[in-house]
Amino acid sequence: MNYPHSFDGQLPGENGIYYYPLLGSTNTEVRRLAEEGAPGGTVVLADAQSAGRGRRGRSWHSPPGKGIFFSILLRPPQTEPAAAAPITLVAAAAIARQLRDATGMQVAVKWPNDLLIGTKKLGGILTEARISGQGPLYLVLGVGLNINHRIEDFPVELRGRATSLHLESSLTFKRTALFLAILKGLRRDCRLFFETGFAPFQPLWKELSTTLGSTVELVRPGKAIRGKAVDLDPAGALLIEDDEGRCHRIICGEIV
Ligand code: BTN
Questions:
Q1: Closest atom of ligand 1 to CA, residue 121
Q2: 111-119 long-range contacts, CB within 8 A, separation 24+
Q3: Ligand 1 centroid vs 53 CA: distance in angstroms?
Q4: Which whole number is the average pLDDT over 42-52?
């Protein structure tokens, strides 16, 4: 298999990694492979996406030659769907840690799926699940990271809120090496999570978090909750104390 120079250097052609210069969405492709019976651990990486998807129906801007856009298929042994829910937190912490180790930059996590530098978004994770009667048949974990983007590579409306490793350092990064380091850490941590649950990841997530201690507004269908994010419990739920002193235990949603 030949890899174009736009994704710098050679990727290992084995190990269940499929590389495409351009795809609609790597999540969609992994779902297709999953339906065909692909094994857990299968990865699809794209240099660019024409229909990259973010959370809550948003699109994910994925220009060529700039980012790391990939999805991994996970087939968890658990039969209980709720047991797999904190996988997004595990992935965010794993990726933030790898990026910190590789670049020395202060990459942080924002509950539940954002990667930040300062207050700006460096990347995000989109987890999709196919649930059967017995539990999640499989999970697709999609990761989008802004690596070598210049400011003009972002749509105008994102320029105030998004950042890249390049914008934070003026350096140009070798995406292949970063991707392989991230994938190694992610595979290891997902395996550990399926064996042990979220508890071993709680201290790391708290250490990397910008969410705890800040005032947050939780957006979710029904009712918004405003308050202080006071803790993350061992199951990965966010604890928010509202202005009346009531504590809310949140397992899904989005904070602004
Ligand atoms: C978010 O923050 O809203 C999540 C963004 C996830 C984007 C990635 S890019 C690779 C994978 N394929 C997609 O279509 N989306 C995810």
A1: 2
A2: 111/209, 111/211, 111/229, 111/232, 111/238, 111/255, 112/88, 112/238, 112/252, 112/253, 112/254, 113/55, 113/88, 115/145, 116/210, 117/163, 117/168, 118/163, 119/210
A3: 5
A4: 97
